[in-house]
Amino acid sequence: MRNFVFIIIAIIFCLLQSTVIQFISIGRAVPNLILILICYIGLFYGRSAMWYGFGMGLFVDLYSIKGFGYNVLLNTIIGWLLGFLGIFLYRKKPLAQAVIIFLTVCIHDLIIAIPKGQFSFYTFYARILPSSLYTTVVGVVLFFLFQKIDRRGE
After folding, report:
1. DSSP 17-66
2. Where are the chain's structural domains?
């Protein structure tokens, strides 16, 4: 039952990320709902985050006009890495969750910016840092809601 709920949430997040998420941007910063869900599943459910990352990356790549496979590969690796490291990381406190989300989004955005030749310190301070902070704030709230869903599903 819990997997079914998270699959529905993943589909909703993919649809939101590719359509209406731009309307709640602050400046150029938008929250990355997909990474928030991958972080949560990786920290609390282990390597199944890899499959969520693959599926959500595939969905994003299908609706993106940019290179196919980049999001699939990157989200799958992030899901696998968080699933692997999730047993070693302290994940119970909201501050620890916020740090993990922040670092994940920073690394994700840096990996996207560097091969495109778009990386500079201005890009980091003007795009990556605000986006990471915005995603972290939204992520802590969503982690709280996901934990409520988990407790209800037990």
Report:
1. HHTGGGGG-BTTB---HHHHHHHHHHHHHTTHHHHHHHHHHHHHHHT-SS
2. 2-153
Calculate mean pLDDT across residues 20-38: 87
Instruction: Give the torsion through C-alpha atoms of 23, 51, 95, 33, to 10 deg.
Output: 0
Tens of pLDDT along 33-63? 999 999 999 988 888 889 988 988 888 888 7
pLDDT for res 22: 83
- Going by C-alpha positions, the residue among 43, 39, 30 that lies closest to residue 10 is 39
Looking at domain 2-153, which CATH architecture does it have? Orthogonal Bundle (1.10)
